Amino acid sequence: MNIETILLLIPLLPLAGCLAAGLLRHQVGRAGAHWITILAVGISFALSAYVAWEVFYNDLPVLNYSVYAWAITDGIRFEIGFLVDSLTALMMVVVTFVSLMVHIYTIGYMHDDDGYQRFFAYINLFTFAMLMLVMANNFLQLFFGWEAVGVVSYLLIGFWFKKDTAVKANLKAFLVNRVGDFGFLLGIAAVLMYMGSLDYAEVFAATPGVEDQTISIFPGIEWSLMTFICICLFIGAMGKSAQVPLHVWLPDSMEGPTPISALIHAATMVTAGIFMVARLSPMFEASDMALTFVMIIGAITALFMGMVGIVQNDIKRVVAYSTLSQLGYMTVALGVSAYSVAIFHLMTHAFFKALLFLAAGSVIIALHHKQDMREMGGLGRIMPVTAITAWLGSLALIGFPFFSGFYSKDLIIEAARYSDRAGSTFAWICVMLGVVITALYTFRMLYLTFHGKSRTDEETLSHAHESPLVVTVPLVLLAIPSVIIGYFTVEPLIFGGALADSITIRTVNDTMIEIADKFHGPAAFGFHGFVTPVFWLAMLGVAIATFVYLFRPDIANWARTRFHVIWKVLDRKYGFDELYQNGFAAGGLKLADGLSRGGDRTVIDGWLVNGSAHLVGRAAGVVRRFQSGFLYHYAFAMIIGLVAIVFAFVSLR
Amino acid sequence: MPLTEIVFYLFGGILILAALSVVTVRNPVFAALFLVLAFFSAACIWLLLEAEFLAIVLVLVYVGAVMVLFLFVVMMLDINVAPLKEGFMRYLPVGVLVALAMAVQMFLVFWTRGSADQPMPDPRPEGYSHTRELGEALFIDYLYPFEIAAVILLVAIIAAITLTHRRRPDTKYQDPAKQVQVRREERVRLVKMKSEGGES
Amino acid sequence: MTLAELQLALPEIFVLSMACVVLMADLFISDQRRGLTHLLACATLVFAIIITLNLRVAPGEVFFAFSETFIRDRFGDVLKLFSYLVLLAVFVYSKHYLRQFNLFKGEFYSLSLFALLGVMIMISASSMLTLYLGLELLSLSTYALVALNRNSMIGSEAAMKYFILGSLASGILLYGMSLIYGATGTLELAAISEGLTMAAGESLLVSFGLVFIVVGIAFKLGAVPFHMWIPDVYHGAPLAITLFIGSLPKLAGLALAIRMLDNGLGGLHGDWQGMLLVLAGLSLVLGNFAAIAQTNIKRMLAYSTIAHMGFMMLGILAGTPEGYAAAMFYAIVYSIMAAGAFAMVILLSRAGVEAENLDDFKGLARRSPWFAFMMLMIMFSLAGVPVFVGFFAKWQVIAAVLQAGFVWMAVLAVLTAVVGAFYYIRVVKLMYFDEPESDEPITAPVDFRAVLTVNGLAMLGLGLFSGALITLCVNAFAA
Question: Do A651 and B101 touch (CB under 8 A)?
Answer without folding.
Answer: no
